[in-house]
TrEMBL record, chains A, B:
<dbReference type="InterPro" id="IPR016171">
    <property type="entry name" value="Vanillyl_alc_oxidase_C-sub2"/>
</dbReference>
<dbReference type="InterPro" id="IPR016166">
    <property type="entry name" value="FAD-bd_PCMH"/>
</dbReference>
<protein>
    <submittedName>
        <fullName>4-phosphoerythronate dehydrogenase (FAD-dependent)</fullName>
    </submittedName>
</protein>
<dbReference type="InterPro" id="IPR016164">
    <property type="entry name" value="FAD-linked_Oxase-like_C"/>
</dbReference>
<dbReference type="InterPro" id="IPR036318">
    <property type="entry name" value="FAD-bd_PCMH-like_sf"/>
</dbReference>
<dbReference type="GO" id="GO:0003824">
    <property type="term" value="F:catalytic activity"/>
</dbReference>
<dbReference type="InterPro" id="IPR051264">
    <property type="entry name" value="FAD-oxidored/transferase_4"/>
</dbReference>
<keyword id="KW-0285">Flavoprotein</keyword>
<dbReference type="Pfam" id="PF01565">
    <property type="entry name" value="FAD_binding_4"/>
</dbReference>
<dbReference type="InterPro" id="IPR016169">
    <property type="entry name" value="FAD-bd_PCMH_sub2"/>
</dbReference>
<dbReference type="InterPro" id="IPR004113">
    <property type="entry name" value="FAD-bd_oxidored_4_C"/>
</dbReference>
<feature type="domain" description="FAD-binding PCMH-type">
    <location>
        <begin position="55"/>
        <end position="234"/>
    </location>
</feature>
<keyword id="KW-0274">FAD</keyword>
<dbReference type="GO" id="GO:0022904">
    <property type="term" value="P:respiratory electron transport chain"/>
</dbReference>
<dbReference type="Pfam" id="PF02913">
    <property type="entry name" value="FAD-oxidase_C"/>
</dbReference>
<dbReference type="InterPro" id="IPR006094">
    <property type="entry name" value="Oxid_FAD_bind_N"/>
</dbReference>
<dbReference type="InterPro" id="IPR016167">
    <property type="entry name" value="FAD-bd_PCMH_sub1"/>
</dbReference>
Length: 488, 488
């Protein structure tokens, strides 16, 4: 599938460059410090493979700049040579957004990994794009602050990639996506100029919201080199409950009740389907806190900044109220941080358990929160009709209406035969999502994987507007061609 | 000053249309229902004057469509005739963003004022652009939810204008600007087509963030016709304190302490300078809770969703701690809703008191929160040097770093002589703001009033990018020419 970027939509300019990379490499080497330009296969491999081996990159040149000026110089040289650039962060994305073609240059931001400034009074932090998310979280913590973006790949994903893909994760209900956590950006443009929007301002109404255009554009409009991130008060009181429920509609009522009672303290509200908990128990050694099986589970986390532990009684009385109302069949509250971590592992172990349970056909969808029960019902019926025996591993961020709706292969079916029906099953699920006013990519983005789906489902007016913006900012298609909007 | 839109930057297309309005009016009348096209002077006046009489609009035709289809039809006809359109909401803006020229058509959204849907489980609401902000707040409240946007003009400003100008107000610290409160938009484009981005999704990573481009663009990229707004849990516990402090640096330490202790419960943290409180007492009948005068005051509001009143002890212990640390010279906590309202009036009465205290030269600026003390010191010194006796009425949203830094005329100076120095004083204050990495328009926007200042202070790369976006979405300059980016 590595040739995919070139087959999506024939573009007029950059992709036609079929220059000998040696000439380009020489020009790049002349302009950049030693060790920045990699052309040996062994040196490049780490940037071209990805964990799942869905795609294999082909870039003959990999760049590892250490500064904004070096990124700018590299882009200028590539733009002059009409050779496209694929920016890459931690290479942890799930949609092939950083897969490079044989006539493209890969630019890794990983060596721009300095935390430049932390301003606790302004609740901000200035970082380079290659900083690993976990390092940013730790630096905030060291200054008595919280950077709330949190997701599975946080040990290796980089903030530049998080911003380019507008990453989500487990705390979106309270804090928003990566977009909402960003005050300022510095971006290298398609012609190598630098836009300095690195402002540490909580309010600024002086012009169009350029930063929001670059955030979530998957490297197709500019290369994010630095960012000012928003910090929050540290959370010193965490209370976690795991609840057994009759159905997703009851989970929604419980969510509403929890937010009415505890407001923003509701930091996470995660859905775990019966099958998801089953495979976690079977494959990861996790253990359900309940002796019986239940149709669906919810993990609730309340968190706050008050050291006096005022949230525990709130959570207890919430669950009592829910139990009395017949909403909750059973529930446990973690008595220690260790127990809280064990409950979280029941949710976070799902992706690993899925790998061990066989092939998966995945969907990262969202619908209005109020329509999640309707979505689960309709999609469940449609999947069962199309592929009897398919096991539905639904889980995710119920509080955001974002469900990872994954299908595990039916027992006895061949994995290859199952995966061959990926597009067909995607179509069935996504049709229902779109009919319910939902999104076919809630948090993972479009990349290569969903560029075709995007064209299928998006309003043509919106596709045309996106094309015009692409034309306005990168007319020669230097930046990550073929990704996201699929424009070459 | 009404001719200003035409003098800012000569544009190539729409502005050259000098057609007889009668012909255009006839075409509009043929396409739109009776009562939609106003041409009589008496009918138009309300849309052409503004409270402060800084500007006077000149549009010979005023349109009052009732639906998106009617807005689209009107834009199509005007675009064909190359006549620019100035969209208008509640006409409460402070920067002349809806002032119309003699060769422009004014389009009022005021009759599109239906709240179409409230979805409490999804925490969303779908509204037409002409809904008055206070009506939206009330509808949310009626469904047990909060729409937190709150500002002085809420009794008459309209949500479409709030979104077009990315309105701020008193709750930004906790909930963000209008931008952060918007999930979806419907927009009529410059050619009369409709972009349907009216999605009620909390997460959606399928393409460029178009909604963020339209929000805050002051009607220069599209006309917002409908929106899906984000709702929040209702606040049932409100605690308000008014504190006397030695200096703004102590106020910052107190803010940090308050957020460490109470997290998002810190809903407002407002600064009131000594002079501001003085004129409120003198001109509005407000009464300081303190017998002595202090250099600066802070109004703190903690609010939460827990009916058990857990915030009162938090606020009390916070103030005790601050008192012991020598941060707070004196403080009162409201004992009733009535007392809370009286304390808020000391802050909210400032604009009215200012009008009565003489001429004002105004600045709506922001800097990083940590730099507010440096800004106040430097600006105070520079103003005193340039205009001895000028009285500084500084107040506003300290928690956001957003200070309304207004100068009241020196005693004994002529009002006209004072106001004649508007631009000079703006230059002095804004130079310091920009030097501190700040913004010359934190929340009021650019409009006509600051289009020149924008060009003076903005990085040319950023101005060029904005121009390219304008070219991409409105090449013929049909929408609100001359406003914001100043492009004709």
């Amino acid at each position: 599938m590595s040739g995919a970027p070139f087959s999506l939509a024939p573009g007029p300019t950059a992709r036609d460059a079929r220059r000998v990379p040696a000439e380009l490499a020489a020009r790049l080497r002349a302009a950049l410090p030693e060790g920045t330009v990699l052309t040996e296969e062994g040196d490049r491999t780490a940037y071209l493979v990805e964990e799942r081996s869905l795609y294999r990159g082909q870039a003959p040149i990999v760049l590892r700049p250490r500064s904004t000026a070096e990124v700018a110089a590299a882009v200028r040289i590539c733009a002059e040579a009409c050779v496209p650039i694929v920016p890459q962060g931690g290479n942890t994305g799930l949609v092939g957004g950083t897969v490079s073609g044989a006539h493209e240059v890969l630019l890794s931001l990983g060596r721009m990994n300095r935390i430049e400034d932390v301003d606790p009074l302004n609740f901000t932090m200035t970082v380079q794009a290659g900083c690993v998310l976990a390092d940013i979280q730790a630096a905030a913590e060291a200054h008595g602050r919280l950077f709330p973006l949190s997701l599975g790949a946080q040990g290796s994903c980089q903030i530049g990639g998080n911003l380019a893909s507008n990453a989500g994760g487990i705390n979106v209900l309270r804090y928003g996506n990566a977009r909402e956590l960003t005050l300022g950006l510095e971006v290298v443009l398609a012609d190598g100029r630098v836009w300095n929007g690195l402002r540490a301002l909580h309010k600024d109404n002086t012009g169009y919201a350029l930063k929001h255009l670059f955030i979530g554009s998957e490297g197709t409009l500019g290369i994010i080199t630095r960012a000012v991130l928003k910090l929050f008060p540290r959370l010193t009181d965490r209370q976690v409950a795991f609840c057994a429920l009759r159905d997703p509609a009851d989970a929604l009522t419980l969510l509403s009740m929890a937010r009415d009672r505890a407001g923003e303290a509701v930091t996470a509200f995660e859905l775990v389907s019966s099958f998801a908990l089953e495979i976690v128990e079977h494959h990861t050694g996790g253990q359900s806190p309940f002796t019986e099986r239940h149709p669906v589970y919810a993990l609730i986390e309340l968190a706050g900044s008050d050291a006096d532990g005022t949230l525990r009684p709130v959570l207890e009385s919430l669950l009592e109220q829910a139990f009395e109302a017949g909403l909750v069949a059973d529930a446990v509250i973690a008595e220690s941080l260790e127990q809280a971590a064990a409950l979280w592992r029941l949710r976070e172990g799902i992706p690993e358990a899925q790998k061990k349970a066989g092939g998966s056909i995945k969907h990262d969808v969202s619908v209005p929160v109020s329509r999640v029960p309707a979505f689960l019902k309709r999609a469940g019926d449609a999947v069962a009709a199309a592929m009897p025996g398919a096991r539905i591993c639904a889980f995710g961020h119920l509080g955001d209406g974002n469900i990872h709706y994954n299908l595990t292969q039916p027992e006895g079916m061949e994995k290859a035969a199952f995966l061959a029906r990926w597009e067909e099953m995607n179509g069935i699920v996504h049709d229902i999502v779109v009919d319910l006013g939902g999104s076919i990519s809630a948090e993972h983005g479009i990349g290569l994987l969903k560029a075709g789906e995007l064209r299928r489902y998006k309003d043509p007016v919106e596709m045309e507007l996106m094309g015009r913006l692409r034309d306005a900012l990168d007319p020669a298609r230097i930046l990550n061609p073929g990704k996201m909007v699929g424009l070459g």
